[in-house]
Amino acid sequence: MGMRKEKISEVLGYMDDKLVEEAGDFAGLEKTKKQKKWHSLFIPGLCACAVLIAAILWLPGLLGIGSRQVDIGGITREYKKMSVSSGETAIIWPWEYQTITEQYGTLTMEGTEYRIRGMGISEELLGGELGSYPARGYDHYTEQEYTKEFEVRTIRGIADEQLVAVNMEGEFYVFARDGYVPPVTFGELLEIYHLQDNLPLLNFTLYEGNDSKGYFTLEEDSEIWKVLSECTDAPFIEDDGFNRMDRNHLSFTATSDALGVYKRVVYITEDGYFVTNVFDYSYKYYIGEEAATRIMDYAATHAIKGLQEAYAQNLAGSIEEITEEYLLINDGVLCKNPEDGMVFRLSMEDIRVRRFVEVITPKVGDAVSVQFMGTVNIEKGNLIDRIYDISRAHISDGDVWVEE
User: Fold this and answer.
1) Is the pLDDT of residue 149 over 70?
2) φ, ψ of residue 16 in degrees (nearest 5)
3) Is the Cα torsion angle 402, 255, 157, 191 positive or negative in sign?
4) Which of 398, 372, 312, 318 minimizes the C-alpha distance to 56?
5) What's the pLDDT at 226?
6) First-residue to last-residue Cα distance in the chain
7) CATH classification of 312-402, choosing from 1.10.287, 2.40.10, 2.40.50, 2.40.30?
8) Are the beta carbons of 277 and 26 closer than 8 angstroms?
9) Which end of the chain has fewer surrounding CB within 10 Å, N or C?
10) Which segment of 39-48, 189-198, 214-223 scores lowest on mean pLDDT?
11) Which helix (H) or strand (E) is 297 found in, with range?
12) Which CATH number fits domain 186-306: 2.60.40, 3.60.130, 2.30.30, 3.90.550?
């Protein structure tokens, strides 16, 4: 059975969110009058992420003059100058090659639908048991629907009407209530999600209009949350004409295990707006210029200069060997001297690796691009874990591109 390839615009309409954009931009993607959802670039319902994400992952690490040092899961590599381009295609894998989180993306609890965010959650963040509830999935090849019950628990400090944790084959994943129901005040938002405890605001980029003035890090964010906690009456603003690039602002990277989000964003604008995509849609509250100024002044005087983090780790190279246990990738094609290449291992026990080998049927010598969230385990022969996508790639004359 072959893969289905779909245009991103055709697939996103019924797929769930997971990892949203690359730590920053969502101008022009706010809610419209039709309640347009703020779609992510990494989608758990898809069995491979959209290949357009490859460009985002490659550019920070590989563009430059001459050679460039690149961090690959904790290992520093020196590559020659590269450029990248990619298409706008997503792959829907056969049902048997999907992970459990890709198969069952929608859960129904007490008549309310929840959609998977795809992020795992540690047990220390779990609250009480809510019972077992059905989740459903859909096989696009056979057009067959599936239903399976899963254990559901609360997340400590967060209203279960909005977020719950679902046990899927021994690991818990965050599911969020489907739909657009923004709290009418910022205080209600704080109370529902306990943001001051669950959403660190430590890393940010300073913008003057459209111009980035650098990436910065704070040691602690208690003063920021102190200011925000005084803005409980701040009203929700539904304004489709909002454009952050028209004003000076801070762009905080928003990652939270409890909320099930990874590198989404929170904007604090000079003219008094708190804007975020943490809740899948654009939520905007007017906290006032005084509060915004206090936050921006605090950030300016307490932050230290830092390096902007890549959205995720990325490895490219050519397949050196395919065994029953591993897929071996050599990055020598990216080095000035190919003999300087390093071999990385991908375990065939990972369904994402196995389906790439068995369905795509790559050959030794083929170029590939691998996105992953983990580190390289040197003691296990440069083993890469937490892989979330593998794609065929083309590497030639200093260019890298991912085929559609």
Assistant:
1) yes
2) -90, 170
3) negative
4) 312
5) 98
6) 19
7) 2.40.50
8) yes
9) N
10) 39-48
11) helix 289-302
12) 2.60.40
